[in-house]
Amino acid sequence: MERLKRTIDAIPTPDRDRMALAQRRLDNLTKPLGSLGRLEELAAQLVGITGQDSPSLKRKVIITMAGDHGVVEDGVSAYPKEVTPQMVYNFLRGGAGVNVLARQAGARVIVVDMGVAADLKTADHVSADGMTGFRNCKVAPGTRNFTKGPAMTRDEAVLSIVRGIEVVESEHARGLDIIGTGDMGIGNTTPSAAVLSILTGIDPETIAGRGTGVDDKGLARKVAAIRKGIEVNRPDRADALDVLAKVGGFEIGGICGVMLGAAARRVPVLVDGFISCAGAFLAVALAPRVKHFLIASHCSAEKGHGLCLEHLGLQPLLDLGLRLGEGTGAALAMHLVEAAVRILTGMATFEAAGVAKKL
Amino acid sequence: MERLKRTIDAIPTPDRDRMALAQRRLDNLTKPLGSLGRLEELAAQLVGITGQDSPSLKRKVIITMAGDHGVVEDGVSAYPKEVTPQMVYNFLRGGAGVNVLARQAGARVIVVDMGVAADLKTADHVSADGMTGFRNCKVAPGTRNFTKGPAMTRDEAVLSIVRGIEVVESEHARGLDIIGTGDMGIGNTTPSAAVLSILTGIDPETIAGRGTGVDDKGLARKVAAIRKGIEVNRPDRADALDVLAKVGGFEIGGICGVMLGAAARRVPVLVDGFISCAGAFLAVALAPRVKHFLIASHCSAEKGHGLCLEHLGLQPLLDLGLRLGEGTGAALAMHLVEAAVRILTGMATFEAAGVAKKL
Fold first, then answer.
1. Which CATH number is associated with domain A2-54+345-353?
2. Cys-Cys with A192: which of A186, A278, B331, B352 at CB 3.0–4.6 Å?
3. Which of A:293-332 have CB within 8 Å of B?
4. Which has the closest alpha carbon to B105: B66, B65, B58?
5. Which fold is adopted by the domain A60-338?
């Protein structure tokens, strides 16, 4: 708890003076005022986050947090829960979607066992090329079924967040300029929808989507499970730790921790999809200042995602109908963040290029 | 005219058999069915365009076509027309937005003088690193003011398209896997809006936007100029060459030619912004089969762009409020096209990864 509090207290405000300077530079580049739209906003935001006039984004990390969920026994997912550990191995072999897109982005992928319900046959390691790593941060082997009681204890909720902070700190020690969050956990759109429903005050039916592809009956079971979880546990929406403990998941807590830890070190965070959005809501509830350090990578195809991002006040960069999670959206959007910084630092000014200004 | 006809006749249909195979491969990759949304559609489209199971996208080109417009004398732009040649020099020195984003994409930038109203002090050349080049394809030093008569002759219209085809052919000889279109021409949102208004049948007021940033009065002059151009010239909307000649521009014709030439050689084309969209409408009007070879890179902030793309049946990949042109949106979107192909060719299948399939 002390660790969490210290991290929250360490989160700075963005560097507004430097942002104003960056905006002035952007306005003098050889292009009509504001004509690079979101890229210009992003460039200024990056300067505000990092406190650097020319932010470097060389050392990129996707942190993919894995966990299992007791509520899958209620038939809320289209896939068996064995897929969670199977996909962890797939990540470590480099065969998953996030690996492909992270390779393209030049980002390393750190897979974190936050609470997989299986004994993973691998120890903490980094691959020879440094581009894939594994960390065992298991809080417990899966959450409990929240339709029957809290998913985890309050202590476990805090621990999951602190473990996320610790992952950022050790990655920071290796060199870290930008983070993308990611998740893997069969069933995890259900706790995410529960968390988002509570924190936004929007009905579960409006928020819960088909996840990996449940049919109408599966979707009905999912909404019913969320309603029951809220009814049975009565989470206090003013207390983010209570919400996480009662209806959340270990990887959701871990993602929340990653965001807090990153903000405390002035590292920008690309928020992946629906599960990461739940982590972001928890992080912002715990520390409102964290919001400025977050960049919404995309709006997924998952039903309530766009609405929740709007609620959070984040505008997604991409809208490509993705719904894979893992950090795929974050990896894909890293290119746009880099583009923004390249524009800021690589374009000629009107004066230097001898180009006439507006009439 | 013979050259144009030959190119149009050479445009193939997409390879539907190979697309079906690609879809089968996508469905067997370790991800929920369809969960990579637009990336999966793009991957299949790329296979259909190229006729290759694993399309290579290594050799990328942004073709930035420049031209001037007689209608600027009616006060339709926020910038003086001297900026067109000034920006050409900026491109050749690598200082413009498109240079920065093309460098990031690993694409070379070929700047083409289609009709700049100045004697450019440079000859055809390619830079030492091969990443920037210039071609003189000048049809005439700027179009005539279309509020007083046709912008160009029908022969000039055909010539501008043929020159675009020739640029693709010479770039293809150097090695070419994907093209992004681009434009530079003070005033060119006005002829583009005129072309789009005629070909979509939508009122100029709904289509014309602020371009590089005209104020309300400038916008009113712009709409009035378009109305007058249509009234004075009575272009035949069933005859794309007539539309291009009467209210178009040399770079718009050139872009249309690039699209036709690329399709004839099974090369995918990323359509940049509003001006490129006008080129795309002309190309599709001349050769409907060209549409399958086009990928809309983004929806710009220019007023009628989204509506026109919808009319054309193209769904943009990005929507970032860009309105710079030059090929910036196309350069930015190349990353997504590459991502799509990497997903197709780089991910593990369920079987290879030992991951369980859907319940």
1. 1.10.1610.10
2. A278
3. 301, 317-324, 328, 332
4. B58
5. Rossmann fold (3.40.50)
